[in-house]
Automatic annotation (TrEMBL):
Residues 16-237 form the Cytochrome b561 bacterial/Ni-hydrogenase domain. It is found in: Cell membrane. Its main location: membrane. Belongs to the HupC/HyaC/HydC family. It is a multi-pass membrane protein. The keyword tRNA processing does not apply. This is Cytochrome b/b6 domain-containing protein. InterPro entries: Cyt_b561_bac/Ni-Hgenase, Di-haem_cyt_TM, Hydrogenase_cytochrome, Ni-dep_Hydgase_cyt-B. Gene3D superfamilies: Transmembrane di-heme cytochromes, Chain C.
Amino acid sequence: MSSSKPSAFEVKSYSVWDKPTRLFHWINVILVLALILVGGIMMYRAELGITELTGKIGLKTLHVYIGYAFAINLIIRLVWGFVGNKYARFSHMFPNANSKNELMTYKSELVAGKNPQYLGHNPKGKFAVLGIMLLLVTIMITGLLRAGTDIYYPPLGSAVQSYLADTNVDPASLKPYDATGVNTEKADALKPLKGLAGEVHVYAVYLLLLLILLHVFAVVYTEVKRQPGIISAMFSGKKIIQGQPKDE
């Protein structure tokens, strides 16, 4: 990338999104869609004719396995947010102390008919990215909680089994959705936590879906009206900018 500043009409190509960032984005898209699909089947399994306990556990197990891949991908991205290139780092992607002023300036420039160009996310996009990332982390944490309490899967499954096992019962012998060997009082004490984790998980997914729809709309609108090439940049890593970028 040249160090000289381009003129107002000069078009230049900039390397922005590094490979790990692009991989996370598309892997995350695939995994989130897969989780939503399996989660939807789980919610409406009775209507779909899946009434056997083995079918319920099978769906939960599949959901958890996909969830592990989702969690690993997200954790890698969280680490990359501190060690990746400039535009992959959270310090550049998320709002900061000056973001309110940047947002007001951005809006005033749009009202004035200007077309500010950004290499990273524009001031509105930074707030959206923060919201999406917080929801992804919330979904991951609550999903792992339910994996441990529902079907005794790692990382919490063994601890949950040890807590729930009745006196002189081998914790490893406890089976999902089977009260055999389970201490009733402890199971009842655990229910509020399970319920809360489940509700937060589901509503976080609903909110994520809303943000995804808004994100897709905003990206397409910006691509067509404001800054062509932002969609292809998530494949190539390069953005085509006319004039001087606001965040170079």
